[in-house]
From TrEMBL, chains A, B, C, D:
<feature type="binding site">
    <location>
        <position position="127"/>
    </location>
    <ligand>
        <name>L-citrulline</name>
    </ligand>
</feature>
<dbReference type="InterPro" id="IPR023434">
    <property type="entry name" value="Arginosuc_synth_type_1_subfam"/>
</dbReference>
<keyword id="KW-0067">ATP-binding</keyword>
<dbReference type="InterPro" id="IPR014729">
    <property type="entry name" value="Rossmann-like_a/b/a_fold"/>
</dbReference>
<feature type="domain" description="Arginosuccinate synthase-like N-terminal">
    <location>
        <begin position="4"/>
        <end position="165"/>
    </location>
</feature>
<keyword id="KW-0963">Cytoplasm</keyword>
<feature type="binding site">
    <location>
        <position position="119"/>
    </location>
    <ligand>
        <name>L-aspartate</name>
    </ligand>
</feature>
<feature type="binding site">
    <location>
        <position position="117"/>
    </location>
    <ligand>
        <name>ATP</name>
    </ligand>
</feature>
<feature type="binding site">
    <location>
        <position position="87"/>
    </location>
    <ligand>
        <name>L-citrulline</name>
    </ligand>
</feature>
<feature type="binding site">
    <location>
        <position position="123"/>
    </location>
    <ligand>
        <name>L-aspartate</name>
    </ligand>
</feature>
<dbReference type="InterPro" id="IPR048267">
    <property type="entry name" value="Arginosuc_syn_N"/>
</dbReference>
<keyword id="KW-0055">Arginine biosynthesis</keyword>
<dbReference type="GO" id="GO:0000050">
    <property type="term" value="P:urea cycle"/>
</dbReference>
<keyword id="KW-0028">Amino-acid biosynthesis</keyword>
<dbReference type="InterPro" id="IPR024074">
    <property type="entry name" value="AS_cat/multimer_dom_body"/>
</dbReference>
<dbReference type="GO" id="GO:0000053">
    <property type="term" value="P:argininosuccinate metabolic process"/>
</dbReference>
<dbReference type="InterPro" id="IPR001518">
    <property type="entry name" value="Arginosuc_synth"/>
</dbReference>
Length: 399, 399, 399, 399
């Protein structure tokens, strides 16, 4: 029986050529798998047909937007996941989802190999292969772009030679990855890190510098999960989509940074993540209201490690599960409402209220009604500062 | 010989009344000490004279703006100090500076006591007393507002009775603390955390929502210290002042948050810190370019602890010194230029260049000239993902 | 109706006197509550009767040894809890258990107050009062030794005056707290930290320097919980008791340290915890075998914070719950057997085996059968060391 | 001109064969470099001559014991470096020292390549190559055992064929690496992790189970550096050697563990490090006496990361330098004396005294002379427990 390869298929030049390239290289049949994580663009049926036209024996397409929203974006939100305090893990979140579907397809189609189109200097190869190592360790991984010299020039030549139904002329000057949680752009002129991004780079967001009316909304959360906008209950997918649209119109969520890749280099990245940035701003402030101080302090360390781990491709790993154990517990009371103003590139919280608030007006107020017993303070301050005091006395004694 | 008290004097109602109050309560002579940390308002001579008029035997005033900029704001910048990822430690930075001057004045004037006007439910009492415990452990601390019932009503009555030269009528509806690094506002209507701030609350920043031209500048850093704007060398104080002005005009640096106080409660705080926020944005991005990945990752933990420690009043403490040992080392190569656009409430880095950059175009580029050896990737990925893979196999085996 | 106070009662001088002292001071009725956490000594009925004889209106005694073992000692074991890498939290674990029983008794007996016999310079007052604040915030706390001058001399005089049935003559030269998880000793001559402990200080452990035969046993764990010794299934309580006996006979678990108290001072402490130390040694090594590397590394940080938090009296706190969420997840696969040799004061693991081991002989061996693909190594090493390499090149360039 | 290779030479079979193997493979001249890090065994001149006899064009030997003690072992001591809380980094410390000498020799001898005899599944290849990447990035690295198939069998055949002066018959059943800081043993029968080590495995330590007299000594430290034993000033090297001897005679420092290698697998390791373990025990306890609480708590996190980083081969890295910045600062006051009893496999601190102690008898004592003001405690406890209390009230309210 002929061996089968499951290929992560995007519909673009590289993976379309890869169908035939892999078939020639391995003698195996290629099953193309395309997953909709909210990247937009062509419809799935068009992509499915192209895979067949390029020689795939089977082409599987799946709308995984709800799954992506619920099982991947929401955990990132509960972890306030911002790699290097900036990047909301757009691509890093979709790769494990795609891996899951690839592993399932491989089992279903009795494939012995799985293929991806990543290069050897990016993070995505790690995310694909680390995910596959965890979910489907028996499969051999093919990476034709990285390991068998399928350069862009060779891909174009291959497409022309085979008459593949791909328009190779309309090359974007940008290297782009996008999904429901955001959009990543890399490109030639941005590789000079002194160059600023130009408006043409952006697609999810309008120019924040253009004057327009502010947008205001109220987000409801239950246990760290957003459940409604302005009182209207929505699915996680719907909430992210609506916030992408509304925050995007206000220019929220543009990020321009030099980033530490797992594979050892620094790279320049431009991101747009209007919905993600707006949601994280709201979630963080609701945590400020509902999460106890020591828990909040330690959670920053946990959140940072969560972001690094997922960035580094280790979504399917024991540490990820244990961090989620912490984070889920910490989000139990992160319920309530946050009023958010979207305007001029900013997502600003202007109000918050919660039945599980730890903010207590009676304790906080300086007005009448104050229930805080200030006579406790002196004892607290003296004992709190005692270790540093004793150390300072020692330092003085020691000269 | 009559005992002496050194009083941290602001020129306002509470500390003006405290001069006579303390004198009556203790029989001691009061030496008033007023420190200019860039809070603006009245000139120092006016404040000095008022202290004398209110009964101080001596009144010492000092312009400590340069000292504050160099010795307190810059270390905070090198630590990217943002308590709860938001608050740049405005008041928390000035208190240890004031404490240092109080301790010096106490020694000079042979005082046996020192006094402050803090209440018992804020953080500043801790910062004063923990600092004094470290620098001048032999002094007794008086806190008349907290410990001997000097309420606002009693203060006003005292001022009227004694005919003190203080205008008690023009009471701000806001409780304000401000200095070179920013401004903090608390107030009655903001104690309802669902209420949004109104424009009247702000003083350091213009409304970011008003359309205006963007401002652009280039900041130069050497070893983590800002040294020039647009190529013009300036002192730290001058740089912070210019950025306060220019970033403030663009509405940069407004913060509205619920915050965890050290003294056990959550409080609502509104801050403005245009210069601080612009400088931290620039410094963080220059770190992204010049600091190695593992160092950058660990530095986030160090920076967080630095911010908590200073917030918690432990500026003069052994851990602070050791964290500074780490941070100074980490900033050795944080040199170069950052282009910053200030507009619409945002301080956005659009370019960065550095002779000590770790970003390497030759390694990062996808264009010709690429020197990254992609054949290394497979080995890296396989070994990197091996522990999670072995664990996943175990989990599958265990069912 | 007369108010009621629930008193944490030990049967000793201080708390026996406190019954009458509190009654006189408050006019309230005293309900004595004595909890057996495995401290040994007198039987509960004797203690109960003494409370009555000393004037308690009710005396409640409870054998909570099983509860203590399962709900307090085992979580500490899963966290490898060693404060300052040494102290297995003996007293810090029993206080929340006692607090729970006090809060329940207060509710049952309609008490409005609760009392403990702690001094003002130890950690236990914090553990009692922080626990009560969480479980029974409505109760007023009385601490007669700390707050109303019930010194030892006054207690002895009170006991004599009232004819209380307490032998005040047999005063131990040591201040001791002990329970199932270990024993803590403080004493006059040990307050000179240059003095070494003498044999007389110890009770749970024999002198490790005396020659004797080694003891060997096999401990079985399931998900981090010890379940059997030498194949014989036992309850957690039985396992701890047997290990206390067997490890104690071999002198295992003596600790002599200077410790950082929460209340600001350093103190000299001597502990004995034969069972705890033996169990932690076994559990740690089984974790080494069954927990994935990145999870194991982060768990050290979590374990450290768990130990600090519990030491600091915050057992009943949101951070504790979230840390437990992590730790429980991390212990899911900590199952298997550990062979332990107890001898000469050491508990040494000499063998471990587990169906959920991540140790893989085929990968680890240097003998035939090796399945590790060494050709992957070069790529891994080169990419792994790339960030440090690029930084070193920068440093050299910068001179 | 003929190219030159600098080879890390041990004098054993593998690296002796590597001289000729590399020469044949590359056509280059081989310069052998042997470094004495205290591994004992043959004298350096014998090793030097063997390298020449095996075909090296030059053979450089260096006694680096003092350098190793001062520049590598002492920093590890100040960091209390114990990987996985157990392993004092024996091999991980010597590799960067050897790398430094290799890089220097390569420069001196105009070599273009450097070679080591490591396999592809151990950590040492990473330590060699990461170190070389940092210190001598221009050199090409050869690893004949890993990359060009120089197996043991082939090495023996090569030695026989060439008549190399190596005795290939006396093969140890153990794979051993040893130096001043300790000794590491791996071996066939220990690869079954249920097997316990046998006495024959050990060389630096006597059997701790054999009854003998205890040994007692007083160690003096200055700023974290041991400077004298029983009042006699010694160099770091002399102190480590004397403690290796005296602690080794008492069976101190045996470690048997399953360990997480950087290269993705778990391995079984047996170590002996009598001097290291005794020194770390003493240093930790002196830190307990002289380091302030918050600094001590954070230092545990820093120490752990230091150990991981050095284990992982990143001695020459920016994070290492910054961690040292913290650790040096933290050790400034770690001065004083520690009395240590060595006996039965244990190194136990029984006394400590220090002019920079933060332990204060007057504060700690329960006897007369107590200066601790217990009236402060109530205020401290109430404010300390307030956040958890408010959270508990919320939880109860929420049900």
């Amino acid at each position: 029986m002929t061996e089968r390869v499951v290929l992560a298929y995007s519909g673009g030049l590289d993976t379309s050529v890869a169908i035939g390239w892999i078939a020639e290289e391995t003698g195996a049949e290629v099953v193309a798998v395309a997953i909709d994580c909210g990247q937009g663009g062509e419809d799935l049926e068009t992509i499915r047909q192209r895979a067949i036209d390029c020689g795939a024996v089977e082409a599987v397409v799946a709308d995984a937007k709800d799954e992506f929203a619920t099982d991947f974006c929401l955990p990132a939100l509960r972890a306030n996941a911002l790699y290097m305090d900036r990047y909301p893990l757009v691509s890093a979140l979709s790769r494990p989802l795609i891996v899951k579907h690839l592993a399932n397809a491989a089992q279903y189609h009795n494939a012995t190999m799985v293929a991806h189109g990543c290069t050897g200097k990016g993070n995505d190869q790690v995310r694909f292969e680390a995910g596959l190592a965890a979910l489907a360790p028996g499969l051999r991984v093919l990476a034709p772009v990285r390991d068998s010299g399928m350069t862009r020039d060779k891909a174009i030549a291959f497409a022309a030679e085979k008459g593949l139904p791909i328009d190779v002329t309309k090359k974007s000057p940008y290297s782009i990855d996008q999904n429901l949680w955001g959009r990543a752009v890399e490109t030639g002129f941005l590789e000079d890190i002194w160059n600023g991004p130009i408006e043409d780079v952006y697609s999810y967001t309008s120019d924040p510098a253009v004057p327009r009316e502010a947008d205001e909304l109220v987000l409801t959360f239950e246990a760290g999960v957003p459940t409604a906008i302005d009182g209207k209950e929505l699915t996680p997918l719907q909430i992210i989509e609506e916030l992408n649209r509304r925050a995007g119109e206000q220019g929220v969520g543009r990020i321009d940074m030099v980033e530490d890749r797992l594979v050892g280099i620094k790279s320049r990245e431009v991101y747009e993540a209007p919905g993600a940035i707006a949601l994280i701003a709201a979630h963080q402030e609701l945590e400020n209201v509902t999460v106890e101080r020591e828990l909040a302090r330690f959670k920053r360390t946990v959140d940072q490690r969560w972001g690094e781990l997922v960035y580094d491709g280790l979504w399917f790993s024991p540490l990820k599960e244990a961090l989620d154990g912490f984070i889920d517990q910490a989000n139990r009371h992160v319920s309530g409402e946050v009023r958010l103003v979207l305007h001029g590139g900013r997502a600003v919280v202007t109000g918050r209220r919660s039945p599980s608030a730890l903010y207590d007006y009676q304790l906080a107020t300086y007005d009448t009604g104050d229930t805080y017993d200030q006579t406790l303070a002196k004892g607290f301050v003296d004992i709190w500062s005692m270790p540093a005091k004793i150390a300072a006395e020692r330092d003085r004694r020691q000269g």
